[in-house]
Amino acid sequence: MKIESVIARQSVDDLEGAIPFYERLTGRKAERFEFAGVHLASVGTFLLFCGPDEAVSRIAAVTATLTVADLPSAVEEAVAAGATLVMPPQPTPNGHRAVLRHPHGGVYEYVGP
Predict the structure, then answer these.
(1) Which Pfam families match (predicted)?
(2) Rounded-to-integer distance, Cα 105 and Cα 108, Å
(3) pTM of the model
(4) N or C: lower Cβ tally within 10 Å for the chain?
(5) CA angle 94, 36, 110 (to 5 degrees)
C-alpha cells in the first residue's frame, strides 16, 4: 500500500470566513461540498468543515484523510497489519471511503477510486 497524500482536517466555526486564509496559505481555490449534514471545503491539503455539533463530532473523530490508489487493497493490507475496520468501503460523492482504527489508536479515513 502506498499513501498518496494526507489531508489535514480542521473544524471551523465559520467556513466562508476561514476559506480565504487557507486559499492564501495553499495557493489553491476551495472546493465546497456537503456530506452527512456537514458543510465542507477542500483547500489544498486541508479539509475544513462546520455544521451541527453532532454531525461535526463524527467528522472530527477522524484524525486525517489518506488517499490511496487502490482502496480495497489498502484496507486489506492495513487490517492484515493490525488495523481495525470501523466502516467498510462505501461510495461517496468523491469516490469511495473506508474508516480504520490503526493499532496505536488513530482513526483514519482512507479514500480512493
Answers:
(1) Glyoxalase_6 (PF18029)
(2) 10
(3) 0.83
(4) C
(5) 45
Q: What is the DSSP string of the chain?
A: --EEEEEEEEE-S-HHHHHHHHHHHHS---EEEEETTEEEEEETTEEEEE--HHHHHHHHTS-EEEEES-HHHHHHHHHHTT-EEEEEEEEETTEEEEEEE-TTS-EEEEEE-
Residues forming beta bridges with residue 89, ordered by sequence position: none
Span 15-29, pLDDT tens digits: 999 999 999 999 999
Residue with cell 466562508: 16
User: Which pLDDT does position 66 carry in this prediction?
Assistant: 96
**48 touches 10 (CB < 8 A):** yes
Q: Which domains does the chain have, with CATH numbers?
A: 3-112 (3.10.180.10)
Is pLDDT at 49 greater than 80 in this prediction?
A: yes
